[in-house]
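Intended use. Records like the one below are meant for learning the mapping from a protein sequence to its folded structure. Do not use them to infer anything beyond what is encoded.
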Amino acid sequence: RAEDALVQLIGAVEKARKSGMDEAALQQVFDFQRKAQWRVDFINAENSMGFHAPQEAARILAESIDYSRQGFVSLSTLQQSARRPSPATTEEKAAVLGQLNPAPTRTATSTPLQKTASLVRDPDR
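Structure written out for the chain above:
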């Protein structure tokens, strides 16, 4: 499972690179990949495949899976932030905020509070 998770992460990183994602932005993903790869390589190079310490081998492989999945999360976050365009100017930001929270419009009709106030001033109305 650890090797499968790592290979999936490497494939996702390769797709991100091909799509033009910045290498500097991928640095955290590379760090997770390196940590996951190191743990898988350690178990493979150790030669007993955990025969003498199966619990420790399982722990190390679980860490590898965890680092691979953290790499996926980091990559996914980067891809989502790259898709979301950020407003460049103050005017654009104001326009976006205005779209999200439009100013209330005033109508020509009077509100119930205005009607009540006019009745208090002129009860014969």
